[in-house]
Amino acid sequence: MKNKPIGIFDSGIGGTSIWKEVIKLLPNENTIYLADSINAPYGEKSPEEIILLSIKNTELLISKGCKLIIVACNTATTNAIDYLRKTYTIPFIGIEPAIKPAALLSKTGAIGILATKGTLTSKLFEKTAAEYTKNITTIEQDGEGLVPLIEAGKLNSKELNELLSTYLKPMLNFNIDHLVLGCTHYPYLIPQIKEILGSDVNIIDSGEAVAKQTKVVLEKNNLLSAKTTFSQHQFYTNINSKVLQEILHNVLAKFSVEKMEF
Q1: Is the preceding omega at residue 187 within 30 degrees of 0, hence cis?
Q2: Which of 73, 84, 113, 248 is catalytic?
Q3: Nearest to 10 by CA among 151, 137, 184
Q4: DSSP state for residue 258 in the 8-state scheme
Q5: How far apart, in Å, are the Cα atoms of 103 and each of 111, 129, 212?
Q6: Are 84 and 50 in contact (CB under 8 A)?
Q7: Which of 45, 80, 158, 218 maximizes the CB count within 10 A of its CB?
Q8: Across all residues in the chain, what is the average pLDDT?
């Protein structure tokens, strides 16, 4: 079991931001990544639809022999991970917006949260926000439209920059000093976000924390890879693989990308 792959799924290419952190910390692990781009974004679907999509992805990864699954999608985590953990025996790692560190580190008492509608309206998000932001002003912003533009390869387009600016600039009026990225697609927008918000606002995403938690769970279950040879990384997408390959262009690890219906 130790040399079986880690499974990762997301509603498209965004979860590759998590994958990069995982292989940086755990270079001996094999991985299988599912980019469910045909159904992106999950954030605009009902909780029932999100659970069904998460089941589909989970069962495909289990069928391919994965030893652990990372739900590399904030929306799928906040809506489906409880169900997945109750239904399957495999360990799951989820992703939540990093509200806690932002709230604890804030000096101005105001933080911004950029996330999808599916995350912002979930019970898990509501519970976490209520627990850690009692004395903090939180400005929540649904990033509607950002994921489709990223999935379409329009990362540096004028259209995306204008939309992002519309969402973020009003947050500056509240004197935020931290911005929480509540979608795994959004770390790819950090250069543009920094230009809009300036250097006084700290940007927090969950990638490094997820990688560390993955290592902890693998160790706890005695599942850390025992091999020292080159790792294998297989990516599957259910639409054109061009954008996925572009987002991975500077990755040093060996990987292969394949289009597959799922």
Answers
A1: no
A2: 73
A3: 184
A4: E
A5: 7, 9, 21
A6: no
A7: 80
A8: 95
| Contact call for residues 218 and 140 (beta carbons, < 8 A) | no
Amino acid at 36: D
Q: How far apart are CA 255 and CA 188, in angstroms?
A: 20
**Annotation marks residue 66 as catalytic:** no
Largest CA distance in the chain: 52
Q: Single out the catalytic residue among 13, 76, 81, 183.
A: 183
Confirm whether 183 is a catalytic residue: yes
Among 217, 158, 161, 155, residue whose Cα is nearest residue 185 = 155
The C-alpha angle with vertex 151 and arms to 6 and 43, in degrees rounded to 5, equals 75
Angstrom distances, CA of residue 255 to CA of 216, 237, 244: 25, 13, 12
Encode pLDDT of 213-241 as tens digits.
999 999 999 999 987 778 999 999 999 89
Q: What stretches of the chain adopt beta strand conformation (E)?
A: 6-10, 31-35, 68-71, 92-93, 110-115, 137-142, 178-182, 202-204, 233-237, 255-259
3-state DSSP helix/strand/coil % of the chain, to nearest 5 = 45, 20, 35
Could you give the 3-state DSSP secondary structure of residue 107?
Answer: coil
- Check if the beta carbon of residue 44 is closer than 8 Å to that of residue 67: no
Give the closest residue to 1 by CA, choosing from 85, 65, 69. 65
Cα 173–chain centre separation: 28
Query: How many angstroms from the chain centroid is the CA of residue 125?
Result: 14
